[in-house]
Design goal:
about 150 residues, elongated, mainly alpha
Length: about 150
C-alpha cells in the first residue's frame, strides 16, 4: 500500500507542476496578464495558435479533475494505511505473552502505589526543626465571642 501512496504522490506533484504551467500560459481576456507580458503581444498566438485558449482551458479542466481524483485517492489510502497500522499494533499487544513481572489479566492488576514526592521534604523539615528549638509567641486561645 505504501508503494501506491508514493506513486500517486509522484503523479500528484507532476500534475501540480503541469497545472501551474497551463494556468500561466493561458491568455487573459484583454491580453494584459502574464501571458502577454512574458511572450509579447501576439507571440503566444504564433507559438500555440489562435485557438489555444480552448485547448488550454480543456487541459486545465482535465488536469484539475486529475488533481482532485489523486487527492481523494491519497486520502483514502492514507486512512486505510493508518487503520491497518492501528489494528496491527493492537493485535501485537493482544498476542504478547506476559513476562514474569506482568500479570496474566491486566484488568485484575492493582496499580502500584504512588510515592509521595513531599514525604522526603517533610522528613527533612522535621529533622531540621528537631535540631533547632522553636520558640513561638502564640496568643493563648480565647473563648468564643459572646452571643448577642
Amino acid at each position: 500500500m505504501l508503494i501506491a501512496i508514493y506513486i500517486l504522490s509522484f503523479f500528484l506533484v507532476l500534475d501540480c507542476l503541469f497545472l501551474g504551467l497551463i494556468i500561466l500560459m493561458q491568455l487573459p481576456k484583454k491580453e494584459a496578464g502574464l501571458g502577454g507580458a512574458a511572450f509579447g503581444g501576439g507571440t503566444v498566438d504564433a507559438l500555440i495558435g489562435a485557438g489555444a485558449g480552448n485547448v488550454l482551458t480543456k487541459a486545465t479542466k482535465w488536469s484539475s479533475i486529475v488533481f482532485f481524483v489523486l487527492i481523494i485517492s491519497l486520502s483514502i489510502l492514507h486512512s486505510k494505511n493508518a487503520r491497518s497500522g492501528v489494528t496491527a499494533v493492537s493485535e501485537q499487544l493482544a498476542n504478547q505473552k506476559p513476562t514474569a513481572g506482568q500479570t496474566a489479566t491486566p484488568e485484575s492488576a492493582t496499580p502500584a502505589p504512588v510515592a509521595n514526592p513531599l514525604s522526603s521534604l517533610t522528613v527533612a523539615t522535621n529533622a531540621a526543626s528537631a535540631a533547632t528549638p522553636v520558640t513561638s509567641n502564640t496568643v493563648p486561645a480565647t473563648p468564643d465571642a459572646p452571643k448577642q
